[in-house]
Amino acid sequence: MLRCRISPEPSAAGQLVEAPAPMDAAAMHPGLVSPHLGISLSRDRQAEDKLQRKAKLRPFWHRLAFRLFVLALTLRLLQTFVVEASVVPTGSMEGTILVGDHLLLDKLLYAPVVPLLNRRLPALRTIHRGDIVVFRYPLHPEEAFLKRVAAVAGDELEIRDGVVYINSHPVNEPYAVHRFRLFAAHEQMRPIVIPPGKLFVMGDNRDNSSDSREWGLVPVENVIGEPILIYWSYNAPTARWLDQSFASQLGFYASIAGNFFSGTRWSRTGMLL
């Protein structure tokens, strides 16, 4: 703002005269200003800048933590209700599914269990003969088995010399593998009728499969899902997949890292089942 005053005595021009701007206290009295004032102001600015940086970082970490939580929750829900990854460690399904095949399981269609409530969602698919399913092993429910359904409720099943008969009719099983004598004990079974809510399952590798011929029927509610895709297949023996000791697992993963390209069965990767 321009400040003016009227001079008590007219100037040469007899006009208004501009008043001088008031001087800063520091300029008027330099001796009154502390020599440490500049350092103090600088420290205050640094502290203020630090607080501002922290204020900017805090929302970033909050957003990151929230996104990670949402991601973990989404993956957990997908694994519980929709799809789950699993590896096949044994050869009971060889001929169709090999040791080291990594599968994606469709769980949504088979009445997944709601955690904590211990209730199942409605089943969207009926299990049929010939389906490959993953289920809780009836004798040890914490274990999951992979087998093919040979008979469902109401079927009369019989096995004679390795041939499966359903309701007195032989079943064509091009997927079944028989390496030993067809008249061996495990290739014979007297007729049985499958009761409601039960399944008779067998592995495709009939000479190397622990299944319903040995330990009985599978309750339908034990079924978890069905394999839909081989997303990766790695050639390694059963012992390497089953040994859960830390040293063995560490050595196995190191072996996979060193032989990933040569050990991967590329022709099976991405195969639909």
Explain what this protein looks like in three dimensions.
This protein is of the alpha+beta class. Helix content is 28%, strand content 25%. The chain contains six helices and 16 strands. It has helices at 25-28, 37-82, 212-215, 238-242, 246-258, 260-263, and strands at residues 4-5, 17-18, 83-87, 101-106, 113-114, 119-120, 132-136, 144-151, 156-160, 163-166, 169-170, 189-193, 198-202, 218-219, 223-233, 271-272. Strands 3, 4, 7, 8, 13, 14, 15 and 16 form an eight-stranded antiparallel β-sheet that branches. Strands 11-10-9-12 form a four-stranded antiparallel β-sheet, with no helix packed on it. The longest helix is centred in the N-terminal third of the chain and has 46 residues, at 37-82. It is elongated, with a radius of gyration of 39 Å. The N and C termini lie far apart (85 Å). 17% of the residues are buried.
Largest sheet: 8 strands, antiparallel
Tally of DSSP helical segments: 6
The counted number of beta strands is 16
Beta-sheet strand percentage?
A: 15-25%
Find the structural class using helix and strand composition.
alpha+beta
Outline, from the CA principal axes? elongated
**Percentage of helical residues?**
25-40%
- Which residues form runs of ≥5 with pLDDT under 50? 1-19
Average pLDDT, all residues = 82
Q: What is the alpha-carbon Rg in Å? A: 39 Å
Quaternary arrangement of the chains shown?
single chain
Alpha-carbon distance between the termini?
A: 85 Å
String of helices and strands? EEHHEEEEEEEEEEEHEEHHHE
